[in-house]
Amino acid sequence: MKKGKAKRAQKRYLSIVLVPHSSSRVKVLKFNSFYAKMVAFFVILIAVFVFGGLYISRLLGENEALRQNVSDLYGTTAEQSMLLRKKTEEIESLKNESAAFREVVNDKIEEFTEKFNQLTDEYLEERSIKISRSGERTETAFTSDMRQLKDSLDSLTLLYSRSGIPEADIEAAEEKINAFMEVIPTLWPVQGRITDEFGYRRDPFTRKRTFHKGLDIAADTGTSIKAAAGGKVTYAEYTYATGRTVRIDHGNGFVTVYGHCSKILVEPGQEVKKGEVIAKVGNTGRSTGPHLHFEIQLYGTAIDPLEYLEKK
């Protein structure tokens, strides 16, 4: 019984033995077991509270940072929404201004179209009445005017295609201009090198100074010769000077001559269109080599073809 009581008495204490290095004396500290457990419990509890507080503080800091980020994000989104709304209003304003501007431009185009048609009708009517060599306008000026009208017509057509106006009321004017241009000798009858121009030159046979009434254009034998303008063939025969020769009457005093042909493909009285093949290049008649002799006559007088042919 006494031994059991002694064991229970020994379990009630917690001993801590201290052995200092400077002394051989050993110190023994005794603590009641209950109080030691209480102290250990409170130490652990305090540690839990300290570390728990630190962890909660960290969570609160991260939460505050997240809340700040969300607040900044909302602020940025609001600014972007405001900017987007402002840009949308600017775009709508530009659209309205563009529509108004387009309407003004379309009105101007239609006004110009009306004036162009009127100018074309008046000018062509005037030309139809004055088919003579007298008057203020020369035939060269007439051809230049027709080209300017054609250029204006092309520019007007381009304006219509870009403006969005569905139809251009210029078909009648276009038909009249094309009809007049059809009978003006502006198309090169053959492509090649010009060996002799219109005017005085030294005759290749007599070596005398003579007047050359047309252009000599060098080309290979058999090259196609095209009508410089639409008209009626009045002559398709052989002559001593120009060999196989074709003459075409285009009206309004214009006549074209094609000489030294190797082959004639049309007949007198035949109607031909501008650009239609009428003969082949050759070396017939008084000729020093294969070429085309091309003349433009106006009311029976030879004129410089370069004044009428399209500029290369």
Please provide a written account of the structure.
This protein is of the alpha+beta class and 312 residues long. Among the domains are: 73 residues; 115 residues, Glucose Permease (Domain IIA) (Distorted Sandwich). 46% of the residues lie in helices and 25% in strands. Strands 3, 6, 7, 8, 9, 10, 11, 12, 13 and 14 form a 10-stranded antiparallel sheet that branches. The chain has a two-stranded antiparallel sheet with strand order 1-2. Strands 4-5 form a two-stranded antiparallel ribbon. The protein is rod-shaped, with a radius of gyration of 54 Å. The protein starts with a helix and ends in a 9-residue tail after the last strand. The N terminus is likely disordered.
Topology:
Layout: H1 2-11, E1 13-18, E2 27-32, H2 33-129, H3 139-163, H4 171-182, E3 193-196, E4 199-202, E5 209-212, E6 215-218, E7 224-226, E8 231-239, E9 243-251, E10 254-264, E11 271-272, E12 277-281, E13 291-298, E14 301-303
Helix pairs in contact: 2-3, 2-4, 3-4
